[in-house]
């Protein structure tokens, strides 16, 4: 038996799906069962009461029992099936139920047809009653079952045909007339069944179209709400991942939609991975069952790709960040016909494009906010760099603090500075941030044939170098695993100038590709410039400090001999007095003068005198103790301050100290080539606190003692 009747001429205008028509028929046939069963059972009882005398005893009772039993079975089937929706049944189940219900209608009709076939009364009046009675039953069946041509047609034929044949078999004028009328009535019922069938299909089609229109309207309202949500999320999402997740969560709340996912490409493997996805009635779609050829096409051509025939749906639309494809919006439904409404129609394509545009706007807003945050952090780092330059006391401290500042609370993952040593090998002088420890194994040389590393490019060109996508740069392929491990996705290297020459290379790395735009590059250059200024400032300070040390040494030391001078002695003596007073110790001041030095100058010249003074200085330094302080006052006058003297030395009149000093002039001095002269010296000593307790008095007493010693020296010199 066929599930549905052959299409009628006007059914070509019906757009309702055959499965939907079959489900409606099952639902309506099942709904008519209670009324039909009760009505047929009640009418059967009436027929038994009116016709029981026109047939052998018990025949109508048997017929009535069969009829009532059949209706009970129909009611039992109704009780079993009434809980299940015909729309949710599988096509096989739906077809089986439709056939069972039609068979029940046929069985009921055949039961009524048994009256004219086997229980037809003999009298014309009862025959007329039976004909009228069965005609009414047939008309009622047509009225109740007109929506299903097979159920109503089988019932009418099984009732009217036996009646017409039996009336023709009676062969009376009345029965013949009645048979003709029954045949005409059968034709009328056939026409009524046909009209009822067309009306049912038209009404069902109108209802289906109305429901579809309502569903489309509701879907469009939901989709518009999702677009508004996407726009709102774009203004509030902290990052792209949060935006993707929010879009998919909102989309998942829409019933009957094809699953949506947002797919990203792995920068290392080049494969695709799901960044976020919505749920669906059948669960998420795993990546391993998706056709990635469409993904490759959409990503490579940067164009939306659509595939679908009304039953399948496959859409892939590029999403953009900073003008580059960053992800793909993917909508896939393997059996769209069962997911009302997700056919790939123009309205859905337009909506998907609008959704992608909304996500793009959200990504752009996120990028702008992130860019503003990055620039603000970089401005703060620039301000901090100024403080680093001002506060650092050495180049090493300045370099390390610069790297620490750049790798903290900025968009940079790491910062480091390198410069070539005397052998040409680059040495990392300072580093900070994620992956910075790997730089301990940094091996780049000025003579390397491979000029790919950014530090070499900077050194070659003496200009800033940028690579905004290290993982996609074919030149960086050998280092991809390391770059990926530490998320160094973009890098900038800029020269650092010191003293007007290229001194080093400062490198910035970022975990985000395309991180270095025009403003970021300018700020990085300013950081490098500030660092260079700071190094120059340190150099200036170092030169000034050196000059100060030189001038301080020159002011306190004799230029000829290198010994401390009178100024140094004036500063030193108060310290010695304070120390001796504090420790309760004593010290002595010895005044030394060369005898006959003026004669050397006058006879051999000042150069000869200078040689004598330098040689005397060397000899005095050789014999002085570690605690002695030797000073040249000027000319041929020297002073020695002797600390930590013991009382025995004082009691012996400083004999040991004088003898040690006189050793300096024991040997003759070279006056000129092949000319040596003996020189003697006079020594006068004063002691603290025995002779005086202030510097001026000690100096005056020592000088007086020295001049007092000179006549003795001259006397001893003139004696035979």
From TrEMBL:
Gene3D superfamilies, sorted: 3.30.450.40, 3.30.70.270
Keywords linked to the UniProt accession: Membrane, Transmembrane, Transmembrane helix
Enumerate the Pfam families for this protein: GAF_2, GGDEF
Keyword Chaperone applies: no
What sections of the protein cross the membrane? 28-51, 57-80, 100-122, 128-161, 173-193
Q: Which domain of life is it from?
A: Bacteria
Tell me which residues make up the GGDEF domain. Answer: 585-720
**The name this protein goes by in its record:** GGDEF domain-containing protein
The organism's lineage is: Bacteria, Pseudomonadati, Pseudomonadota, Betaproteobacteria, Burkholderiales
